[in-house]
Amino acid sequence: MENKIRHLLGISGGKDSAALAIYMRDKYPQIEMEYYCCDTGKELDETYQLIDNLNSYLGKSIKQIIAKDAIGSDQDPFDHFFKMYRGYLPSSVARWCTKKMKLEPFENFVGNDLCVSYVGIRGDEEREGYISKKDNIQSIFPFRKNIWSLDVLQKTFSKKGITILKEFYAKQTNGNLLDKYISLIDYPIETGEDLKFATHELLNKDTPLFNHAVFALLKHFEVPLAFEDDFPLLDNEEMIVRKDVFRILKDSGVGVPAYYNKVKYKIGEEEGAYARSRSGCYFCFFQQKIEWIWLYEQHPDLFAKACTYENDKEGFTWNQHESLHDLIQPNRMKVIKTEFLKKEQKRKEAAKSPFLIDILDDGEDLGCTACFV
């Protein structure tokens, strides 16, 4: 492998990856970023419009990559693999769509090059992003206070890493302050929560110092950033949350994808509102049932196409235990809308209380990590 590092950022068609592209372009123009997307052929028109808007703003073309197996096919990528998998629909336990149309095309695009992959997981999200099993690909999370991936943190708090970490802090600090840092570095790591605690405490004490320590430590491991002399994100102390993402999109003029716009509906005397919460294929099996109704009512042509993939004879449906035909029966839709309305009301009540944590997450951007990546 050559020591030239490629910096890649995948555009999913959703708000977070779009905002990350804008953020990196504006704040770190010195990074020679490559932008790419993986088109399944089953995206909403609003997604393609966002890609066009980003192309203009970034001043660079977003490279479209598709699976090698689908190149030359007379079908779009999803239909090509759907046929290859003999009509088996993708599901949470058989995510061939993610593997064949996202991950494999990305890793083929990288090849054996050293690569830093920028992922738009926000600072207010409690989840880990995709970490490649290939040693030449390293993930970075610029929106989080902790920009490092789990595999890097495991190296940091390994026996070898702890020794290097202590040496670094000893050169930068002394006295009681050094003692405090050493006690955190020596914190017994037995579980993932222990690792998270030690990382959190060191970041809170001095984020840039911890980042520089990890960067120095990586020189002793074979990861892509080990071959860089410097990395501008080391001094970044910003944490970007959901409201910041919308601000970035609006202020840039790129705009928020139209499918995030709330559409009002009525259940009796009560009024609710729904919208799509994620990017990705219009028939993504990870979407909520209220989003299926949104698709049925806002894009009936696409809903009808989604129905054609379901096979009543074989029992292959997008949702467990329920076909799309069953889901759009009037009484069933009323139940789904009512339940969603109650959930939104509870969310609003929780948001007003300083003692309640909103656990009713809307499920946005879950499932397929950067679904248009």
Keywords:
disordered C terminus, 373 residues, 44% helix, 3 domains, 14 helices, Rossmann fold, five-stranded parallel beta sheet
What does this structure look like?
- With 373 residues, the chain is an alpha/beta fold.
- It has 3 domains: 5-148 and 234-252, Rossmann fold, CATH 3.40.50.620; 149-233, no CATH class; 260-352, no CATH class.
- It is built from 14 helices and 7 strands.
- It has helices spanning 15-27, 45-58, 77-84, 96-110, 150-156, 159-172, 175-185, 192-205, 207-218, 242-252, 289-298, 300-308, 324-327, 330-352, and strands at 5-10, 33-38, 63-65, 114-118, 137-140, 263-267, 270-274.
- The strands form 2 sheets. It has a 5-stranded parallel β-sheet. A two-stranded antiparallel sheet has the order 6-7.
- Helix 2 links the parallel strand 2 and strand 3.
- Helix 1 (15-27) packs parallel to helix 2 (45-58), helix 1 packs across helix 10 and helix 6 (159-172) packs across helix 9 (207-218).
- It is globular and about 70 Å long.
Termini separation comes to 24 Å
**CATH class category label of the largest domain:** Alpha Beta
**Beta strand count:** 7
Strand order of the largest sheet: 3-2-1-4-5
**Multimeric status of the protein:** single chain
For this structure, what is the CATH homologous superfamily of the largest domain?
HUPs
Number of domains: 3
Radius of gyration: 23 Å
Shape: globular
How is the CATH topology of the largest domain named?
Rossmann fold
Main sheet overview? 5 strands, parallel
Instruction: Assign the CATH architecture of the largest domain.
Output: 3-Layer(aba) Sandwich
Helix count, DSSP H or I runs of 4 or more residues: 14
**What is the percent of helical residues?**
40-55%
Element-by-element helix/strand order = EHEHEHHEEHHHHHHEEHHHH
**Overall residue-averaged pLDDT value:** 89
Spans where pLDDT lies below 50 across 5 or more residues: 355-367, 369-373
- Derived from helix and strand composition plus strand pairing, the structural class reads alpha/beta
β-strand percent reads 5-15%
